[in-house]
Amino acid sequence: MRSTALVGLLVGLTACDSPFDMDMRRFAPGGLSTTEAAQGATTTARPKADARGVISYPSYQVAVAKRGDTVAQVASRIGMAPAELGRYNGIAVDARLREGEVLALPRRVAEPATGVITPSDDIDITTLAGDAIDRADGTSAKPAATVTSGEQPTRHQVKRGETAYSIARNYGVSVRALADWNGLGSSLTVREGQFLMIPVKVDAPVQTASVTQPGQGSAAPIPPSSAKPLPKDEAVPEKVTAPASPKLEETRTPASTARMSLPVAGKVTSLFDAEKAGYILVSAKPGDPVKAAANGTVRLVSKDVEGEEIVVIDHGNGTQSAYSFVQGIKVKKGQSVKRGQQIASASKNQYNAIQFLVFKGTEPVDPMPYLQ
Questions:
Q1: What's the rounded Cα separation, in Å, for the pair 294 and 320?
Q2: Global pTM value
Q3: What pLDDT was estimated at residue 258?
Q4: Cα separation, 293 vs 321, whole angstroms
């Protein structure tokens, strides 16, 4: 992630009272995806809509906007009152929609009798007109067969404070897939009350191990021959000399010269990626002590936009470290801490890990060189 806007965060931490965004998405154009670093699930493409822009699933339907559409135009195309559609999606009827943006339907609309209609399919005008006359006369037409568009994705209603990044991370999908499925555009903006389809994941192919047939890949032993004498047994020494005791002082491990130490006694489960995630994940069980990676001064004790607690420590020379997925913080802003001093405990989270970041100046950098 590259952004000069981080200057305001790192230089002015002592005056920072607003929630800290662990994903740094508020500070960079295009944001920073934490999802793709911790989870690499492959997802399918969004199914094609029918001629009206409707995608149907057994439990719900959505309408996909065309270029230049307003909510009212989408409602007119699918035969629904604009006010009803706008109210259900929390958006004004005259609001201009992005091409590909998805609106949830408050109730089912008529579906094709067979198959999903696409713009290239032939549409029987007579049938459509007959259906319209039946509805106008108040007669009940035969219900159309339920038409589905592949596996039904989970539907999520956006809550206050949620972002495209936090939603993608919670469901284990990439934020780009979430944006493509819901037409969020490059801004990745979501609004409270909005319904989102969660992309359907694709199972990774199972790796099959090759099995060697018996007798293949190894040479058969040569049977003993009556023409050759058996090998003589090797002589065993009468007295075995005990090995000399090792000199432990010569094998002692020297003290670590790394500039920082891991904040928890776990393994690094997700490496730094400057283009996707500016942190590493270190495995930790809930309650495990989280320790300061190096001597320094606590610059920030706060919560990020998702309510996760966070601690930031200034180590001097423009270097700072940040710790998230923690609880029970034991330090205060302005307090001096020593390397290895407990500052918090690991929280219960879906990664069974803590997030650890290192900043040099205004940029997040790979923590690994500091730990080696």
A1: 10
A2: 0.41
A3: 82
A4: 8
